[in-house]
Amino acid sequence: MNPTPLRYSRITGTGSFLPPKRLTNEDLVAQLAATGVETSDQWIVERTGIRARHFAAPDVTSSDLAAEAARRALAAANCDAAQIDLIIVATSTPDMVFPSAACMVQEKLGVQGCPAFDVQAVCSGFVYALAIADSMIKTGAASKALVIGAEVFSRILDFKDRTTCVLFGDGAGAVVLEASKEPGILASALHADGRHVDILCTPGTVAGGVVLGNPLLQMDGPAVFKLAVGVLEDVAREVLAKAGRSDADIDWLIPHQANIRIMQSTAKKLKLAMDKVVVTVDRHGNTSAASIPLALDDAVRSGQVKPGDTLMLEGVGGGFTWGAVLLDF
Ligand code: UT7
Question: Is 123 a catalytic residue?
């Protein structure tokens, strides 16, 4: 009997979409000042590295952004939407309570039949979704997957809370992940620790036709910062060990884009120079589940990331959740 041939998954195309409305720190500072909320470009840049973010128009949803990013990834992969047999959307800001944003993306792409579902792991969502799609491809459950991160965090921001409203933005990023004889994805690791639910959450819910509790994002920033810098090093080392690689093998670190200081700290711990780190937080802000695929697509299209490069993708966020995927691009 012939042994079952090894089956891997590989990214064959990337795409992203940012809503056109761009707010610089100066724009946001002026907007907040008009409502008595005091902040400054200097504070935002020094504490986070953020200089601008994009906000979606009121009638634009996560699935709109996701579908556009998906179309661009499909074009880059030279793949027709009808060939896709799995759609996963990572989002914490879906269009509706249900059905999933993934089903809406499927409809917007004009295809039917394949499984489509959302993953809710906040800023780790894309890494979770990619690891799930990789597993489904390896087992033969899928052959060509669309994996998308899409968010409209501007909808859940409390613009009276300067400690959070200056940090986030909207956008979407997508990849086409296809079955391949060669890796592709080398290793992944996913984690969660539900003891920390309260440090980053949007606790409100809908019941009996009314919103119960606070439906806006709240975060204990310093607590999240402290946990993030610890787990991002640990999980990177975990996937390197699984793949039999070392930190010297990483061509590009593509971390969740929350804060330049977290990225600098992770790079230092992994002995990587900052010119090996893809940085888009300055232009996009924190786009939660969209930040990693947005950064990946940006780096591919700018020519930073090239075919054959080894990439470490790392997410961390609410839950508390974290994870990493190591891959040959
Ligand atoms: O996406 C999921 C993962 N999320 C993250 O990774 C976020 C992690 N956390 C962070 O990035 C940082 O903790 C923040 C950027 C959120 C905050 O930076 P920090 O250096 O931890 O500042 P802090 O919260 O300790 O605040 C320092 C000071 C405080 O003033 P006092 O108490 O020292 O007088 C704040 O009130 O900065 C003040 N502050 C501000 N000042 C001007 C907080 N927000 C602002 C603001 N403008 N927007």
Answer: yes
